[in-house]
Inverse folding.
């Protein structure tokens, strides 16, 4: 089988820009902001970018079930921030924002399937420590179950 090798002074081949749709899981963390920036750079100028925030919901068991997580920053505030950030950097993108509730990893994977996403971008470490302890790593779950490529940004 023939092999191809690159010399260190040769340019590395670059994949063409992603046409979309590209989904960004956005929780307001610094890593999520960098994921948003990377996704905006990776998508074709007129590509479709969908920014999603997912409010985690973890309920206690029993008759008097209650939420184990307090709501953090409102979805509207997070999505307005993301919209402003992308609008300033890449105004020609087709930008859509969406808020969901539930398990963040499951919500991102499900949305990628619904929309036929080509890429999911998200931060490697979210803003909510309690959610991470109760739900586990969203990035690991998405990387394992996504129907498309996943970009985890640190």
């Amino acid at each position: 089988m023939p092999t191809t090798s690159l010399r260190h002074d040769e340019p590395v081949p670059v994949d063409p820009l992603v046409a979309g749709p590209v989904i960004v899981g956005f929780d307001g963390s610094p890593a999520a902001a960098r994921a948003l920036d990377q996704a905006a750079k990776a998508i074709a100028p007129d590509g479709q970018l969908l920014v999603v925030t997912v409010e985690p919901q973890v309920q206690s068991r029993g008759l008097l079930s209650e939420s184990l997580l307090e709501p953090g920053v409102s979805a509207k505030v997070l999505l307005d921030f993301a919209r402003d950030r992308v609008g300033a950097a890449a105004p020609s993108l087709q930008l859509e924002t969406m808020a969901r509730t539930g398990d963040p990893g499951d919500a991102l994977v499900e949305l990628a399937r619904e929309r036929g996403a080509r890429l999911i971008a998200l931060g490697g470490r979210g803003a909510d420590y309690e959610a991470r302890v109760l739900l586990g790593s969203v990035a690991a779950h998405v990387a394992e179950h996504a129907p498309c490529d996943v970009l985890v940004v640190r």
Notes: The domain at 22-56+80-153 is CATH 3.40.50.620 (Rossmann fold). The first strand starts at residue 22 and ends at 25.
